[in-house]
Write a structure and sequence with these properties.
heterodimer, A: alpha/beta, 2 domains, six-stranded mixed sheet, four-stranded antiparallel sheet, 9 helices, B: mainly alpha, ABC transporter involved in vitamin B12 uptake, BtuC, globular
Chain lengths: ~270, ~280
C-alpha cells in the first residue's frame, strides 16, 4: 500500500479537505441517470470510477463541474479545517474550489491549424491567439507544459499529437491554475502502455506535490491496483466502494461485468 | 469618399480616370471591406464546422427580404437582418434542447425558411423573377453609404475577434472543457451566429445568395491546407479572400460576368493551389 498524506479511507474528514457528495440524484429528460450517490473524496487521494457504459460516470463528473442544473442532493467542498462550501453550478468564482477537468480526448483533425501554444493560450489568457503570441505567454505555456514533461510539444499541431501527448497537454491545462480537485474522464483510453505508465507516474507525483484529489474514470481494471487508493463501482448507483482488490473481487463487480469479463476474468 | 477616389485615380487602369466610373471605384472599396470580413468569419465557420449553418442563414436572409418586401418596406434588408438574427437565435436554442444531430436541425430550419420565402414572394400569383437579382448579386450597384455601413461592421467583427476569439475557439474544440474554464459557451456561439447572420444578410445584395456561402467557406478551407497555427490560418484566409476579391472584380469588369461568381472561382483556384503545395 502506498502512503496517503491524510484522510485514510475509514477515518473521518475533520481535518482534511474533502469533497462530499450526499444522496446525489440526477434525472435527464425523465430518465434517471444517477440515484442516491454518496461518497467522499479526500485530498491527496486517487479515486477511480468504474462502471459499464451508460453508468452515469460522465454525468457524475459534470455534476461536480457544475454543468448540470437541477440535481437532487448535495455537493459540498470543505477546505482543510474550514467551513463547507456548497457547489451549485455557475461559473467558478471566489471561494469555490477549482476543479481541473481533463475531458475525454477531444477530436482534433490532423489538419486543424491549432498549435499546442494556440490552444494553451486561448484557454489561459485573454490575448487573442490569431495575433502573434507574445513571449510572455509563450514562456508561461512552456512552464505549464514542463509540469507534465511536455515542453517540446509547444509548436506541434494539436491534431498531430499521439493519444498520450494529447492527454499530457490537457493535463497541463487542467493544472493551470493548480486545482483542488482534478477530474479525468477516461485518461487511459487511446494511450499506449508506455504513455499509460508515464501518465500514472505523473498523477502520483502531482497528488503528493500539490496535495490535490484526483478523480478519474477508467475501463482499465488491470492497472487499478497500481495507482488507485479507492475504487467506486457505479451503475446508476454506487454498487461498491473501497480499496481496489476488495472491489475487484466483489460479487457486485462480477455481476456488473459478467458478460464483459468472461469466466474468471477478474482475478 | 473623395479621399478614396483621389487614391484610386492614381491607379493605372482605364476606369481609374478622375471623375468617372465611380461605380467601379465604389465596388473596389466595397470588395476591400467585404473580403476581409468574410476572411475573418470564415476561419471560425470552418473550424467549428458551421458551413451548412451559414448556408442556411443565407436562405433565411432571402426569406427576410421576401417578408420585408411583402410589408412594403423600402429597405427590406433590415427586415432580412432581423429575420436572420431571429433564425440564428432560434436555431441555437433548438440545437441545444434537441437530441437531433446539428445538421438535421439545420436541414429542418433551412428548408422551412426557403419554403416560407418562396411562398411569400409568390403570393397572389406574383412572379419570382424580381428576386433573381438577389440570387446573383451585383457588386457594381453598391452605394458609398452601404460601404460605410460594412466598414463599421468590419470594425465590430474585429473587436469581437479581439475580445472573444479564444472563448469561441475553445467552445468549438470542446464545449465541456470550455465551460469548466468559465466560458459561456451558449452565448459565444449565439453572438457568433448573429454576426454571421448580419454580415450575410447585408452583403447578399452585392455578392449574391448563390455564392455567398462559398465566401464563408473557401478562404479558411484554403488557409487550413497550409496553416500550422491560428496566426497563419487567419493571415492566409484574409489574404486569400482579399486577393480573390480584387482579382474577381477586375475579371468581371474586363470580361463581364458576375463579380461574386468570379471571386468564388478565384478562391477555388486558391484552394487548389494550397491543397497541392500545402503542408504534408
Amino acid at each position: 500500500m502506498r502512503k496517503i498524506k491524510h484522510g485514510r479511507l475509514s477515518s473521518g474528514c475533520a481535518d482534511s479537505c474533502c469533497l462530499k457528495l450526499e444522496e446525489l440524484s440526477v434525472k435527464l429528460e425523465g430518465d434517471s441517470i444517477l440515484e442516491d450517490v454518496s461518497f467522499h473524496l479526500h485530498c491527496g487521494e486517487i479515486v477511480a470510477l468504474i462502471g459499464p457504459n451508460g453508468a452515469g460516470k460522465s454525468t457524475l463528473f459534470r455534476s461536480i463541474l457544475g454543468q448540470i442544473s437541477g440535481y437532487k442532493g448535495k455537493i459540498t467542498f470543505s477546505p482543510a479545517g474550514g467551513p463547507a462550501i456548497r457547489l451549485d453550478g455557475g461559473p467558478v468564482s471566489g471561494a469555490r474550489p477549482l476543479v481541473g477537468y481533463v475531458p475525454q480526448a477531444p477530436s482534433f483533425d490532423r489538419g486543424d491549424p491549432v498549435s499546442v501554444l494556440d490552444f494553451f493560450t486561448a484557454a489561459t489568457a485573454r490575448w487573442p491567439v490569431w495575433l502573434p503570441v507574445p513571449a510572455k505567454y509563450r514562456a508561461r505555456a512552456a512552464a505549464c507544459l514542463a509540469r507534465v514533461h511536455g515542453e517540446d510539444l509547444l509548436d506541434r499541431p494539436m491534431g498531430g499529437l499521439s493519444g498520450g501527448q494529447l492527454q499530457r497537454v490537457l493535463l497541463a491545462l487542467a493544472l493551470e491554475p493548480v486545482p483542488h480537485i482534478l477530474i479525468l474522464d477516461e485518461p487511459l483510453s487511446g494511450v499506449d502502455i508506455e504513455g499509460e505508465q508515464q501518465l500514472l507516474d505523473m498523477l502520483d507525483e502531482l497528488r503528493t506535490q500539490y496535495d490535490l484529489s484526483i478523480f478519474l474514470s477508467t475501463h482499465d481494471f488491470a492497472t487499478l491496483g497500481r495507482f488507485a487508493d479507492k475504487v467506486i463501482l457505479l451503475n446508476r448507483r454506487v454498487l461498491r466502494a473501497g480499496p481496489p482488490d476488495e472491489v475487484l473481487s466483489s460479487r457486485e463487480f462480477h455481476e456488473t461485468f459478467h458478460l464483459r469479463m468472461g469466466k474468471g476474468g477478474a482475478q | 469618399m473623395s479621399l478614396w477616389y483621389a487614391l484610386v485615380d492614381l491607379l493605372p487602369f482605364e476606369w481609374a480616370v478622375p471623375g468617372e466610373m465611380l461605380f467601379m471605384k465604389n465596388a473596389l472599396l466595397a470588395v476591400l471591406v467585404i473580403t476581409p470580413l468574410f476572411g475573418i468569419l470564415s476561419t471560425m465557420v470552418v473550424h467549428s464546422r458551421m458551413s451548412f449553418f451559414s448556408d442556411a442563414l443565407g436562405h433565411s436572409a432571402f426569406t427576410g427580404m421576401a417578408i420585408g418586401a411583402l410589408f412594403g418596406s423600402r429597405e427590406p434588408a433590415w427586415a432580412a437582418v432581423l429575420f436572420a438574427v431571429l433564425f440564428a437565435l432560434l436555431f441555437n436554442v433548438v440545437r441545444r434542447r434537441s437530441a437531433l444531430a446539428s445538421d438535421t436541425v439545420i436541414g429542418v430550419f433551412s428548408s422551412t425558411a426557403v419554403a416560407l420565402g418562396i411562398f411569400l414572394s409568390t403570393l397572389n400569383g406574383r412572379s419570382f423573377t424580381r428576386f433573381n437579382a438577389l440570387l446573383v448579386g451585383d457588386i457594381l450597384s453598391v452605394e458609398p453609404a452601404k460601404v460605410g455601413l460594412l466598414a463599421l461592421i468590419l470594425l465590430v467583427v474585429v473587436a469581437l475577434w479581439l475580445v472573444s476569439f479564444n472563448q469561441l475557439m475553445l467552445s468549438a474544440v470542446h464545449p465541456a472543457l470550455a465551460d469548466s474554464r468559465g466560458v459561456r459557451v451558449f452565448w459565444q456561439e449565439t453572438v457568433f451566429s448573429i454576426a454571421i447572420a448580419v454580415v450575410v444578410t447585408l452583403s447578399m445584395t452585392w455578392v449574391g445568395l448563390l455564392v455567398i456561402n462559398s465566401l464563408l467557406v473557401l478562404p479558411a478551407a484554403a488557409a487550413r491546407n497550409a496553416a500550422r497555427n491560428m496566426g497563419q490560418y487567419h493571415l492566409f484566409s484574409v489574404l486569400g479572400a482579399v486577393g480573390a476579391g480584387i482579382a474577381g472584380l477586375m475579371t468581371s469588369y474586363y470580361v463581364g460576368g458576375s463579380a461574386g461568381a468570379a471571386v468564388t472561382l478565384y478562391l477555388a483556384v486558391w484552394f487548389a493551389i494550397t491543397f497541392f503545395i500545402g503542408k504534408k
